[in-house]
Amino acid sequence: MLEFSAMVSPLEEERNHMKVSKFSDVQKALIIKQGEEGTPVAEICRKAGISQAT
């Protein structure tokens, strides 16, 4: 007998391995807005504690 409850779809498995962001959606929006307003990327990243590659 097969036990279907133990089967996990690839999409469901991917969701379980996604990294949780340390920033809320509001914080992300504020960071992006700073860039749109002309604040240098290096300064935004330094203040937010993220790498420029991010």
Summed up:
The chain is an all-alpha fold and 54 residues long. Helices cover 50% and strands 0% of the residues.
Features:
50% helix; mainly alpha; 54 residues; 3 helices
Chart the SSEs and their pairings.
Blueprint: H1 10-16, H2 25-36, H3 41-48
The number of distinct helices, counting runs of at least 4 residues, comes to 3
Order of helices and strands: HHH
The count of DSSP E runs of length 2 or more, i.e. the number of strands, is: 0
Largest beta-sheet characterization: none
Helicity, as a percent range? 40-55%
What value does the average pLDDT take? 83
Distance between the termini: 48 Å
Low-confidence stretches: none
**Gross morphology:** elongated
Structural class assignment:
mainly alpha
Strand content: under 5%
Radius of gyration: 19 Å
Structure description:
The protein has 54 residues and is an all-alpha fold. Helix content is 50%, strand content 0%. The longest helix is centred in the middle third of the chain and has 12 residues. The N and C termini lie far apart (48 Å).
